[in-house]
UniProtKB/TrEMBL annotation, chains A, B:
Highest taxon above the source species: Bacteria
Purpose of the protein: Proton pump that utilizes the energy of pyrophosphate hydrolysis as the driving force for proton movement across the membrane. Generates a proton motive force.
Name listed for the protein in its UniProt record: K(+)-insensitive pyrophosphate-energized proton pump
Family (UniProt): Belongs to the H(+)-translocating pyrophosphatase (TC 3.A.10) family. K(+)-insensitive subfamily.
Transmembrane annotation, as ranges: 20-39, 73-90, 102-123, 144-170, 182-200, 251-271, 277-298, 310-329, 341-366, 387-414, 420-441, 487-504, 536-557, 602-620, 626-645, 694-714, 720-740
Keywords associated with the record: Cell membrane, Hydrogen ion transport, Ion transport, Magnesium, Membrane, Translocase, Transmembrane, Transmembrane helix, Transport
Subcellular location: Cell membrane; Endomembrane system
Site feature Determinant of potassium independence, where: K482
Subunit structure: Homodimer.
Source organism (scientific name): Saccharomonospora marina XMU15
Membrane topology reported for the UniProt record: Multi-pass membrane protein
GO function terms (MF aspect): diphosphate hydrolysis-driven proton transmembrane transporter activity; inorganic diphosphate phosphatase activity; magnesium ion binding
Known catalytic reactions: diphosphate + H2O + H(+)(in) = 2 phosphate + 2 H(+)(out)
Amino acid sequence: MSRHFLAESSIELSGGDYGIVAVVAVVALAALVIGYFLLREVLAAGQGTEKMQEIAKAVQEGAAAYLNRQRKTLAIFGVIVFLLLFALPADDWNEAIGRSVFFLIGAIFSFSIGYLGMWLATRANVRVAAAARESGGREKAMRIAFRTGGVVGMFTVGLGLFGASVVVLVYTGQAPKVLEGFGFGAALIAMFMRVGGGIFTKAADVGADLVGKVEQNIPEDDPRNAATIADNVGDNVGDCAGMAADLFESYAVTLVAALILGSAAFSASGAGLVFPLIIPAIGVITAVIGIYITRARAGESGLTTINRSFYISAVISAVLSAIAAFVFLPDSFDGAEGNPAVIATVSVIIGIALAGVILWLTGYYTGTEHKPVKDVGKTSETGAATVILSGISVGFESAVFTALVVGAAVYGAYLLGGAVALFAVALAGTGLLTTVGVIVAMDTFGPVSDNAQGIAEMSGDLEEGEGVQILTELDAVGNTTKAITKGIAISTAVLAATALFGSYSDAIMRALADVNASLGEVGDSFVDRIIEPNTLVGVVIGAAVVFLFSGLAINAVSRAAGAVVYEVRRQFRDIPGIMEGTTRPEYGKVVDIVTRDSLRELATPGLLAVFAPIAVGFGLGTGALAGYLGGAIATGMLMAVFLANSGGAWDNAKKLVEDGHHGGKNSEAHAATVIGDTVGDPFKDTAGPAINPLLKVMNLVSLLIAPAVVQFTVGPDASVGVRLAISLVAVAVIVVAIVVSKRRGSVMTQTPAEQSTNA
Amino acid sequence: MSRHFLAESSIELSGGDYGIVAVVAVVALAALVIGYFLLREVLAAGQGTEKMQEIAKAVQEGAAAYLNRQRKTLAIFGVIVFLLLFALPADDWNEAIGRSVFFLIGAIFSFSIGYLGMWLATRANVRVAAAARESGGREKAMRIAFRTGGVVGMFTVGLGLFGASVVVLVYTGQAPKVLEGFGFGAALIAMFMRVGGGIFTKAADVGADLVGKVEQNIPEDDPRNAATIADNVGDNVGDCAGMAADLFESYAVTLVAALILGSAAFSASGAGLVFPLIIPAIGVITAVIGIYITRARAGESGLTTINRSFYISAVISAVLSAIAAFVFLPDSFDGAEGNPAVIATVSVIIGIALAGVILWLTGYYTGTEHKPVKDVGKTSETGAATVILSGISVGFESAVFTALVVGAAVYGAYLLGGAVALFAVALAGTGLLTTVGVIVAMDTFGPVSDNAQGIAEMSGDLEEGEGVQILTELDAVGNTTKAITKGIAISTAVLAATALFGSYSDAIMRALADVNASLGEVGDSFVDRIIEPNTLVGVVIGAAVVFLFSGLAINAVSRAAGAVVYEVRRQFRDIPGIMEGTTRPEYGKVVDIVTRDSLRELATPGLLAVFAPIAVGFGLGTGALAGYLGGAIATGMLMAVFLANSGGAWDNAKKLVEDGHHGGKNSEAHAATVIGDTVGDPFKDTAGPAINPLLKVMNLVSLLIAPAVVQFTVGPDASVGVRLAISLVAVAVIVVAIVVSKRRGSVMTQTPAEQSTNA
């Protein structure tokens, strides 16, 4: 079976095609409008007592302060990358400028979605808490929480689709190149938001627990704990802002991959640039349906309600996608066998089905009602060590099955696609995308309910009773939906990365053709590459980077949590009256400390993600870089699911014990599960979810540098000196970043004095 | 740069070559003789008090009983594989019979080395304990422990080298094919010994600790604990027998890879079959020197003594190897550029240097005197969760750096080797091998001292004082040498697997040529493979199998430990007088239970290792299988080091606290490190070390099935039906094995009744 390589700027859109893309753009704008109306509905809800509003305000201010400071840091970084992109080869100035400009637009969109997610969540939390106090509170609270997610979902799909369709309208044949910039901007910022927010939320959470629960023996969210506000801020900047940016990035990059490969599959007509936009447009419609049909029924668990919405909208998406395929696709691919409509329909359905299976699989491994979490709960009777071991086993096992399911989906699309195999994989990705609107809505559930519970607890205005129960139920549902979202996100990462991996190879082929190497030679050099240790070394380095990234993220949380521990201890010691509840602790100080530390800590993993592919590509060549990407995708997929699901299982095992199993709250079994949960915190909320944007950033960097790597490897410009110089600079950046972060110390028990001596 | 493919049976050895190989065989036999004299020296030492001998006897009987039962299980499996090997394509009957017969010989050698390691260790332990009581005890105890290791080291290199040289003498041109069988036999049995022994030792250890230390609050090795004898048996069947078989396998497989690739590099002369035998023969000589110069000096730590021996013998190996290269290698490769003597010398030195760096790196990450373990110790002040997190960070980080160092060695050899790159990688492997004799001697140190301490404690015949201190010091040194050995073992795995990976590709090429596909077509199909999702799916599955294997091994330990917990609890409850020390517990019962469970548990991971490559190869094709091997090697390397070093760091962090840091014994910090150590037990002694033989088994299975896969994929015999049928059978075997093990339950807290209901 022969393969298609990217046709260069040869695509022209017909008038009809322009019309369709314009309609897609209008649908995208409509999504934004619907999002706006949902937003108004959420904000119109009652805000509860004065005390609750006061606490909510503190959280709002802290979260806004963090994101504003993060914006300044990222802006500098964004401008540097904007300029650096001009250094990479491009066909003409139009393309080079478009790529850089849309890099900025992708970055801004990504940040904005994150900011919106935080902004709204910090306003929705208090409203959910207030609703829980009213009569019929359960339905009202659930509605507000889910509608909040709906706003973010609508803005995610709206901005993603709008950006992509504008690129196609403006750049047509050059759209793929410009889209690389758009996707890169979205992925890069999302990665920073995920890492920074993830460090923030878990540093505050772990720090608060270590002093509050462990040392002072006061309950979670107790207002006497100086870290409580920071903990609530963390839920919003990590789970809301980070997650929203991450899903936006998943959406944008998958779309980008489908458009790049679509333009290769239908190089003569515009179908390849149009069809990948139609599927997500269908997703917008079904997401709206999904969000509006989600109504809590009495006596039904919240998860059942959400699942029903998901499955209904998934089926509608599948049906509409099939119709679209038969209406809009031409009868044949250019020079390749197979019926486009059939291939596209089945591919999209594979993607939608994959979302459903992941939903079920993650629910099984992390839900309190299934065997794995029950088993972890049981091991709490023999102490913390067995809790850790059983959680790790659950994580490994679920990672394996998730990887096999995703692998099967990729392989299914691949078999089906024949000569357009990669396009089929990318289409499966767009199928998965049609569910993103509902997924985002589901995910936001978790942090908003968590925060609502925190506000209720801190204000003391929600006494034991129905209101508390409602919020506890929503929080448990949120734990599972959060795990599910992570599973879906990493699946989109694998599909998009696989497709991009193909695009990378295409880019290499094209660049090689450009430097006048005959195709025969190209073939030969690839034969060499696959079987030589070179490629295998690339695979090893790719896998190693995932391990390093995870280790750095976990370590960063430990360090930042250590600073929180010292500050909270100091306040208990130096400020009289905190323990008695007569003086308020200085919440803002802790927020400031975590803000400063998270922003400092995100640099090392971020630089690693950007510079590692540069070091490998220029240093070891294109074959090693291909191996690098393969190793990173495979290990990253497993590691991400392992970290997310073992963390989720520990969290819910703790919930099981708190619900009265195995001795209940304050038993030794409970203490054992608290240890498990603390270990799981940076697993599931920092390291695990950040691997998803990491994979995309590394693939996009590789795609962007591919022509330059070839330029300096073969052909007239080949220069070992230049190649090695670039590689060494990249290595130096990574080494310096790691050394700096190492010097900050590697343990949370370091005193601030020790840390500053080391810094 | 063009590549060499394996020449088929065209090699003839000259009379001089025969002479050299015969000399190598004699050197190998000399190693066995030296081993025998060392053995007599160890056995001649005093055996201590009657009580000590009584305990030692119980351990001897338990260990022998386990290995005898394991032998029966493995014999059946061995015979089946012996027959199955005939089903695979071979050039003629001579080759087919040789492959199967040497498979059996490799298997028997592997088992025998393991048995010998156990047999001797269970006799040396009591002698070390006895020596520690005498005056000048430190030097005497150390000498016995190290000489015990020397015996195993001499037998490991002697049998490995003897087997390989006999194959070369008898089969010459067909030697590579027959060697595949020899290596496969060694690796397969070693994997089972590692997994079974690893499960045994940690199930007994964890089970003993959970009831003894945690529930009954009695010290480790207390004779009132019914699991103590089983724990001591475990040290011998796991750390001695399993490790010895594992290192023998590493030795044999690396040698096999070097001989296979050597015969490709010098297809006209016999140099490629002779030189890879000369290097390990040099290793025998330097190992003897290393073992005899190891003498403890007063006031010097045990680790310094051992390191000195290692470095001196490494330098001697390097010098002698260089001389051998210039004397024995021809002036040029067949049809490839480069000076063989220079390439070989530098490659061997790369391997030796790699061993030195790994030694240092592992010592740094797991030694009590360096920062990482001290940091983990520090985190004990904030509880178990932070101990776990910091240990995991240390594990990730050390895995990354170890992987990069090994990757650099592979890449260095690759760059150097040019057209014979893979041969250079294999030669680096033989360089590493020259250190194996000393490494085995070092490793045996750990379990022997550990056991000596246990016997001393149980007998009560070694009161507090110098004797106890000596044994404690030796035990701590043993912890680090054990971790170092694992680092070296996994490095040999990566070098050998990389070389075998290349052999696999060669085998595919040859098989393709056999079915008359033109080379041009072959090239094209490879181009397809690397860039298509198919290969990436293979990488994902390969990485997933490593995760699954690790999870299965950890789970098996949990389950078997659960059975121990119930039995020890039962004995405390039902047998009066145990706690008062008036009645002896029934030690044998616990040994029986662990024996039965370990043998039952090793089936699933074992079957997975053998059948997964078959499923992938026949199901998805040769490209996916190549990806599979790459993914498994990369992830396996990282996972093995992560598991070994985080476990080692936790173990020694506990030792730090027990030495009086952070509150000392029985403080809360101590409890936190005990949890860390318990989590680390199955990491470092079951799952981690078993990954090494796993990688070799999977590579060798792939190499063996490669021609058959090609036969059913392309050419006249191609049949999708046959291919899928074979693949489905393999998948079915794996699924059944997993389901059976799942039904046994997945938690250690299951009662035996629950387990048998499920089974």
